[in-house]
Amino acid sequence: MVRVPSPVTNVLHRIRRVPRALARPGRRPPAPALGLAPQPRPWVRAAGLVAVVVLGAWLGLLVVGNVHVPVGPMNTTMTLRPSVTGGTKINISPLGALQLDSHIAPVRLDVNVDQLDPERSQALVDHPERLSGLQDEVTQDIAHGTADLAVRSCVAVVTGATALGLAVYRRPRRALAAGGLALGLLAASGGTAYATWKPDSVLEPKFSGLLSSAPSLVGDARSIVTEFDVYQKELARLVTNVTKLYDATSTLPAYRPDPTTIRVLHVSDIHLNPASWKIIASLVEQYQVDVIVDSGDTMDHGSAAENGFLDPIEDLGAPYVWVRGNHDSRVTQRYLTGLKNVHVLDDGRATTIAGLRFAGIGDPQFTPDRSEKTGAEQSQELAGARLASALRDQRAAGTPVDVAIAHEPSAAREVDGTVPLVLAGHIHHEKTETMKYGTRLRVEGSTGGSGLRAIEGKYPDPIETSILYFDRDTRRLQAWDSIELGGLGLTTAEVSRHIPKENQPGAPTSPSPSSPGSSRTPSDRPSSPAP
């Protein structure tokens, strides 16, 4: 018989005891060896790698992902930034910023105008003939700067992702994988931006900053439409406009609108906010407004004691067209009728001002307590029907109306097909739509920031108004600028340019709702307003 050494016997004895020990209640199985630890799932590893890549690429762009580019007489900094919506942002300190919906991609192009170079600026002043070639020079500078930015961004993204990957994983192969994935993501983002690039985005810029500089930076509606070949150069035109702002005296240039354009300032729902008159007067001067249209609710309770609030209208610097809102009483209407330079429209009455023919109707409801009366919707529809009838009579008489005005959108919808444009208010936020029979409905927000009731909420309501541009020959709407100012206690300003589709370059011409043969008969009218 072979004798087994005692150490081996002890080991075998312990192995035989392991199953019995595991069978005893309250005992836990021994922990597995380190080499047998469960590995994380593949999707967890992939998500971690993507997080490292995105964070590293972002850090790389923040540190070195920008280029300093001389653009014409200016020194600028171009940067790529991660973004959900994409687009281009041009920061023009201290005037504000222009935002362009130029592309859809997870990266945004930021262009910061750092300063005006004194020597290059003085050269332009001494040799003004060089301004004619400034556009081409700016275009070339931007092209070179974009190419340099693309190269630098690639280096920044790959370096940042690789460095962070090495710090996290401590494995060169993982770090190189992170850098390669970052380069792939950047290439995909660049391809998406190229595929979705919209050169005509400069037609509808969004400006935020000092309100006084908005007309100069956003541009003139007439020239944007007719000189589309110039605006195809994207940023070049905008940068040229910025150059003009920084003249030798460092003052903003005077706004010189196209003489073939009629400018209408649309206000609504002032609700006794005295600050509105100063804002309106400033806009009239800045944009050289020809006509002011107020679509109602100028007052809050419509009492005779409030009538003194209306006196500044006489000194606003432009004719004032007004229709009654549900917070304006007949007392308010009679008082306004007696003020100079005010044109009160009601029951379909029409008047021609600055080459445009307006017609309007007052709100049939008087509800200063904001109550809902029985049959309110039906009364609005009936008022809209009376206005539509008056518009058809005007057309039959050979004096077609260009712009109709009602306070509530439900009344304004009833004139669809009888006029090219109808203006309304009441709902305290702007809205624009083209209705079934071709009439465009433009609803204005509250130019008074909802008045004193704005302090009832946590955040103040913005002050909203708009500048409407009309062609002086056709009397059709060309474009409009939506203007939004911060509410009580805020000082922000934002201007957005909008151009109707039919006015976009190359768009087919559509028949006018006010043209002969396009009017609706009573049987064509919908039985109820569109939602």
From TrEMBL:
One of its GO terms (cellular component) is membrane. Residues 515-531 have a biased composition (Low complexity). Keywords: Hydrolase, Membrane, Metal-binding, Transmembrane, Transmembrane helix. InterPro entries: Calcineurin-like_PHP (IPR004843), Metallo-depent_PP-like (IPR029052), Metallophosphoesterase_sf (IPR051158). The chain crosses the membrane at residues 46-69, 149-169, 176-197. Residues 262-429 form the Calcineurin-like phosphoesterase domain. It comes from the Bacteria. Residues 494-531 are annotated as: Disordered. Pfam families: Metallophos (PF00149). GO terms for biological process: lipid A biosynthetic process. One of its GO terms (molecular function) is UDP-2,3-diacylglucosamine hydrolase activity. PANTHER family: PHOSPHODIESTERASE YAEI (PTHR31302:SF31), TRANSMEMBRANE PROTEIN WITH METALLOPHOSPHOESTERASE DOMAIN-RELATED (PTHR31302). This is Calcineurin-like phosphoesterase domain-containing protein.
